[in-house]
Amino acid sequence: MAQNQTEQFKPLAPFISSTHHFSRQEDQNISQQKIIRAKKFIRCCGCVTALLVISVVIILVLGFTVYNVKEPEVRMNGVTLLNGSFADGATNNITLLADVSVKNTNDFTFRFGNANTTVYYDGMGIGKGFSPPGKAKARRTIRFNVTMQIVTQKLLAVPSSMIDLKDQALNLSSYTMIDGKVKILNLFMRKVEVELNCTVQYNITTGFISNGDNCLRRVDI
Fold first, then answer.
1. Looking at residues 90-113, what average pLDDT do you find?
2. DSSP string, 81-130
């Protein structure tokens, strides 16, 4: 009887729960998934950054090679005498209006400000010229007028002018500085400085000029 009671009250084996084991396993799985996601995110960011860098490089190459600024084509089409006279004994200053055309040979618009022109005769400065601001669209030609004021006393002070006046032909030269800018691909703004040295022969009788396209150009970017 005593033996049966002992067996009846025999303590049970301790209960070991597996919940804690499963919890640790789940935490490890979650951590691994986070690491995998982080690696994928880093790879994705790296790819996007590389694409952006490549795109910027391509745009820069296009902007500074393919879309390199080219020299404009400049021509003086004609000169009109507005007032004054080239006759002997004339004392009033002479106003000339020059018809100038500029062809933009680039694939983008060239915008320029006021331009100043210095007029020379046989290497001596005899007057000034002024032209308004404007813009020349891509592959287009723009025409504008340049007003030139010739100081008669300075012209007559040049020894060779008296002979040329008798021949009714004046060899005029001019220097013009044009400051402008171009916008490439609607992204890059580049300043452009154009220098023009032109030489023409003006016929006093007819008002026509010859060698109107005799202009040397220099472009600084």
1. 84
2. EEE---STT--S-EEEEEEEEEE--SSS-EEE--EEEEEEETTEEEEEEE
State the Cα–Cα distance between residues 185 and 84, nearest whole angstrom: 48
- Rounded to the nearest angstrom, the gap between the alpha carbon of residue 158 and the centroid of all alpha carbons in its chain is 41
* pLDDT at residue 121, rounded to an integer: 93
Backbone angles phi, psi at 191, to 5 degrees: -80, 140
Lowest mean pLDDT among 28-32, 130-134, 215-219: 28-32
Integer Cα distance of 93 and 95 in angstroms: 7
Euclidean distance between CA atoms 155 and 96, whole angstroms: 14
Tokens representing 26 are 């789940």
Give the whole-angstrom CA distance, residue 80 versus residue 99: 8
Interacting residues of 71 by C-beta distance below 8 A, sequence separation 6+: 105, 194, 217, 219
| Torsion sign (Cα): 46, 51, 54, 60 | negative
State residue 11's pLDDT score: 56
